[in-house]
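Demo today. Your pick:
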Amino acid sequence: MKKFINALFLLAVSAVALTSCSDVPAPYDTPNQNSNNPTTPTIATPIGSGTEADPYNVAAAIKKLKDEPADQNTAPIYVKGVVAEIKKVDTGTYGNADYYIIDKDYPNHKLYIFQSKFLANAKFTAANQIKVGDVVVIYGPFVNYKGTTPETVGKGATYIYKLNEQGGGTVTPPTPSTPVNTEATAYTVTNAINLITNNQIPTNEVYVKGIICKAPTYNATYKSLTYYISDDGTTANELQIFSGKSFNGADFTSANQLQVGQTVVVLGHLKAYTKNGRTTNEIDKENKLVSVNGGTQLIPGSAPTPTLTPTPTPTPSPSAPTTTTEVTAASFGIANSKEFGTQTMSDGTTITTAKGSNNSAPKFYSAGGGTIRMYPGNTISFNAGSKQIASITLFCDEYKGDKYTASGNLETTAGTVALNGLKYTIIGINAATVTFTNNATGSGAPSQLRIKKFVITYAN
């Protein structure tokens, strides 16, 4: 009887001890919990719709961007967060800042704000204009960079819309209809770049006015010029005028028909050209020149550009000093599939290749007798030291009917380029150094430049 009573007592105690579910040990941790504080989720609940009145929080913005295709800019959105870490504030040329924002109390879930401007899309002028702990609302396009990193689109495409609940004025990027775009009311270069970076590119042609900030390069195949313009004549915020034509679509005949420092109005289609993760803001090919320094006449440079002739450069007589050097790509003894880098010719001239805007540097390949392979954006430079280079001829490769000439898109820092079959002739260089750029687009055989040999002629 005593044993029976003791058993009933133990059952009663057990029933009282487990009357609450919270007293039962959990079989596993609740998902989305912070390891330091099991009751606090590591990620805030995504909220917001991305509008001015209802911005995304950081969690919602990151979730949205991770669902986006890699490297495609979103439409401008509003995102609210707390500044958690400041990487850089540029108060000079660019006036932008790099920093991270978080949702309050969730420090491990950061969103990268890359090259953002200050309030009202103004430049940063002091490093202390933002600080850790500030509450910001960011406005502009975002991107899922390389499919792994949600962040803002760079180059000042985004800015702080509100700082600690205080706005700095609303900046509305220009739209195709506001203001009316005519030759007299042409967009500035800044206007044009904002339209491109904010995904507001008009479908129609637009007028853009700027100052030529880089010497034009001439493409003899298309009889066009590629050059750059900016609002102040510097290269800090430039727009490429790609493969442009002269007045009324007429052909250009030489690189010196336009000059650095001239103010031009150009009519064409705006475009963001992206290659290997790098975007160039440009007016697309087939654009037309509208005015130069307010007029409708070309104002070429004082030094005329020599005219190409079909005859090769004469070879000096045996008694005269040697002025021409011929070199094959294979003569440098570089191993197959190795970067070409910098090589020195027997006459002391150095040749340097660089990847430029491409992710891959030029390499030497032994196939076909040996070639230097240059991909879009790659460069090759010649430095003759105390000598003056008069002209250079590049001989390109052909394989199974494909001509590896970059489709005629070779640009030069000096002289005039002409392509004849598999041979590029660059004359009128008259400089100790010259750089050639493969400015082709796309991929495959037409975009590559494969150099088998080159002939350099020096001025006496």
